[in-house]
Amino acid sequence: MKFLDNLWLALDALRSNLMRSILTTLGIVIGIFAVIAMVSIGEGAKSEITGQIEALGSNLLTVTPGRVSSGSSIGAFGSGTSLTQDHLALIEACPSVALAAPEVGSNMSVSVGKTSMITNIIGTTGPYAQIRNLGIERGLFFGTREEDAASRVAVIGAGVAEELFPNQDPIGLSMKIGNVKFTITGLLASKGQSGILSNDDVVYIPITTAQRRLLGARRGQLRAIYVTSKSEDVTDLAVAEIEQALLRDLKDPEAFNVSNQADLISVVEDMTTTMTLLLACIAGISLLVGGIGIMNIMLVSVTERIREIGIRKAIGAQEKEILLQFLLEAATLSLLGGLIGIALGATGAVLLSRALGWQAVVSIEAILMASGISLMIGLFFGVYPARKAARLDPIVALRHE
Amino acid sequence: MKHVVELRNITKTYVIGEIQVKALRGISFGIAPGEFVAIMGASGSGKSTLMNILGCLDQPTAGEYYLNNREVSNLSAAELARLRNRELGFVFQSYNLLPRLDAIHNVELPLIYAGVGLAERKERALAALERVGLTERAKHRPVELSGGQQQRVAIARALINEPKLILADEPTGNLDTASSLEIMQIFQELNERRGITVIIVTHEEDIAAFSKRILRFRDGLLIEDAPVVGKGAATHEISR
Questions:
Q1: From B90, which residue of chain A is nearest by alpha-carbon distance?
Q2: B177 and B151 inside one domain
Q3: What confidence tens digit (pLDDT) does each residue in A215-232 have?
Q4: Cβ neighbours of A12 in B, within 8 Å
């Protein structure tokens, strides 16, 4: 018996029970769809996030407070953060460091008239705009003069501007942060989403203003210090210098953390890979369920066709030919489901990434693997029913009603 | 060639739990090419078991079975399947056609398992249908055919691989008198004009009367082996 005859036979059998075939295939369709969609979205997210991080430049360093040392933990509430202005000065003194800017911040209410929103208020100094690569759409970022005077000036993100000053040029207008009135001197260009967080819902004010007027008791502590090295070549050197300087003061190597972009990228990559794998595993479970569905339907099909099997054997079908017939039927069912699932999954991934503004990553590997997996599932879950069919005694099968 | 079928002391014992059932208790006979043999006997006489062994669907517990002068009682399942496909034609009481396939596809089925290509299959299946007078019904499915027509399709299927031997297990058991005669006429024609050996199992004396020799069984033993006398009666039935 030729393979094509068998394939024709399998398609014919599937067609004659069309509704049942479609429902059975659905399990595989959904499973493969989920796997392809999850992997594509995960890959898309990964390349998007690492792309964003890389755009910040590889000479950017971030110094963050680490574990609270046992000595200071007995102190007043909020003294847990170990980084202060003094440390900023130590970092600025390092020979390989080009720029450094502190960051303090809190989520606070911002209002204009009756419109208000909660947003991220960041207090910092002039170099921050350069270090973090903030694009100024209009106006100016603040500098030393505003910091020395603790001026009530604010530079707002595009999201905030849109929310509070719809269709208006906000420069020169005023708004309230908490109860303190600020004049808007700068508007940032839109940076878009990173994940579900908007980069545009942010307000920058001079650090001195933030400490004196808004933050109260927490004024002394810095949330982070952003640093650029003099060039990419000396980034590692800058890290070493900063670590040495801070260790001399803080004594505890766990009290602070200096990270560069490469570290961050590898952490994020690990994280998104883990997430993708997790999602793919969950999707894989539905594939397993789909496979069991195929096995179930093939068992039903074999039972329904015992007489047909008897007839085929009586007129000379070999065991292996019956086996192949049913195996091919299961594999066809599963592979068709897989192909439909791939098409749906790829379409879904492209649509979703377009909606999120990401680049769609539907890899050939994922498609080949999904096809292979669905074929394997069909064969794996089809073997048992097919063997059952092939081993039927023709006399018993012929007598079956 | 001496015999198409030769049995030597064939026994078949079924073991059902603790009980041994002796379905065949030492059967020996030979059938020469071109014979038309009827096998008769009450239910439980062992004739179905004998038919299964003759048709290579089952194997004897002991004894020798020569099909076309080849000992086949110890062959593997795969070799038996090959014999069923190439050297035998089967006709069943309940036709055993595949309901989803039309007549021509039912007829060509054994050729698929013989590895014959599509074009030749079609040609030979049409020729076989023509031989049983069903050319114009080639595209009809079994449900669209009468019992007699279905059995003719089954005969065409049995003929497709040009076997020397046709085994028919109560082929007229489900048919009315007119269709039964029609079917028997076809068997008779195949036997007389084409020299095909026909072995037929039946309950009915007037069906057996079409044959040239009757083997009677009782309790797993061959009790009578006699030529048919008064053959004119059957011929007369046909012409009526």
A1: A315
A2: no
A3: 876 667 788 888 888 877
A4: 100
